[in-house]
User: Fold this.
Amino acid sequence: MDAESESSMVHRWECHCGMPPILLGTFDEAGNVYVSIRKRHYHVIGRITATCPRCGAVRHRPPERPQS
Ligand SMILES: [Zn+2]
Assistant:
């Protein structure tokens, strides 16, 4: 279970409401977000909001909470 070795620049955007976590998409260091819905692949530049299909939580990318 070590997926970081392949692509260190791309991170998983997931909701950790349960196991296994729900994968909402992926994002990279530059702020690009990649979401795959069925057979379509979306490349988002800027902000995106996703609703977790399992717990219904609204997830923002980038996160809206201010930095500490
Ligand atoms: Zn969830």
The radius of gyration is 12 Å. The CA atoms of residues 17 and 55 lie 7 Å apart. The mean pLDDT is 87. The pocket of zinc ion is lined by residues 15, 17, 22, 52, 54-55, 57 (CB under 6 Å).
